[in-house]
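Supplementary Note 3. Input sequence used for the single-chain structure prediction.
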Amino acid sequence: MSQSFDVIIIGAGPGGYVCALRAAQLGMSVACVESRATLGGTCLNVGCIPSKALLQSSENYSATVHAWKDHGIIVEGVRVDLARMQARKAEVVSANVKGVEFLFAKNKVTWLKGTGRILAAGRVDVGGTEYSAKHIVIATGSESVPLSGVAVDQARIVDSTGGLELSAVPGHLVVIGGGYIGLELGSVWKRLGAKVTVVEFLDRIVPGMDAEVGKTFQRVLAKQGMTFRLSTKVTSARADAEGVTLTLEPAKGGAAETLRADLVLVAIGRRPVTTGLGLESVGVTLDQRGRVATDAHYATNVPGIYAIGDVIAGPMLAHKAQDEGAALAEILAGQAGHVNYGVIPGVVYTWPEVASIGETEEALKERGIAYAVGKFPFTANGRARAMGATDGFVKILADKATDRILGAHIIGPDAGTLIAELATAMEFGASAEDVARICHAHPSLSEAVKEAALAVEGRALHI
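The predicted structure, written as discrete structure tokens, is reproduced below.
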């Protein structure tokens, strides 16, 4: 007789492991299938966590070389020990993945080691052993999207995983893709000494973000030394012993040209991982983009089979997957699990950071919604001046009639932390005036949020 569980989750990334932990908290017997040698999925192993470790290390190096002298701190003979930097990154990853394994043991979640395949509703095969469950959750995440004509070899042409594992700083790094991942990894290697060129098919970077923020972001990165080739497509890449020759063409047609690089990073996006799960034989429906189709309660068209995270519709963000995992566990327990998709922040962890939540100006204009804008620059914030981090601004979009906050966009120091206040405000339907009337500590970066809220009514105090 096969071992039986209340819930079997396929995938131990942020969505899967959080779903497992929450279901266990609610009294269910839970198993989580994971083929990696460690838990945590792409995020903890080769994504969010290792990239942030390298971003922090490279920012520390950049500050030592370029910024500390303005504070009267003179450091001579600074050099990069990339081997130690990579070793520290591995230590950070190890601590995180071991933490998830500890939580599994603490909450009595069974780790089924191997590749999972759904045989039928209620039945899962893992490495030739069959298990049964009342509920099956697909949480297999996503993978890098390949680019035609550009074959990733993880040597001269790498994807995001390879881009985290370099043993030497490249002379010239070409990043294909101007989204979150490409700009973060490009920033790491630029700070450490590489020449970085970003090639983007569209006419702007971070295309999903507010256009004004995107333009400012590009100017800041250009000031830091990044070069941008927008409205440009890469049609081929030929690697040799010395580097890579790229063929570029204007996105709207025109003469081709070549660009030489030491290393190429392909970061044009991610796609859901659905192959090998047996979805076709079970009859689980996929949408036109290859994602698992679900209803508002994460149920597929096959009773008893659910899906969450990058494998379903919505932004491919770890925190979105985590919230879905917890919500689904609560739904399976008979509770009212819910995720507010209008209030999910997105953050680019460069320096300065860029954070966004809710509507952009472009979206509001397209929908014909009347709105007011409040902006406040970090150049007028006392704490930012003291830090020497004055690039950027806070921007709040509020409904013209009701003053309810519809969106918020920040480019500046610790934007990813500052956006949390506005996420809380939006979750509870707050107005810009509500935020403006909250007493914010002085001197703090969060005062820029208060001032932007005041600016919605044209009454910012410090500009």
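DSSP finds 14 helices and 22 strands in the chain. The chain has a mean pLDDT of 97.
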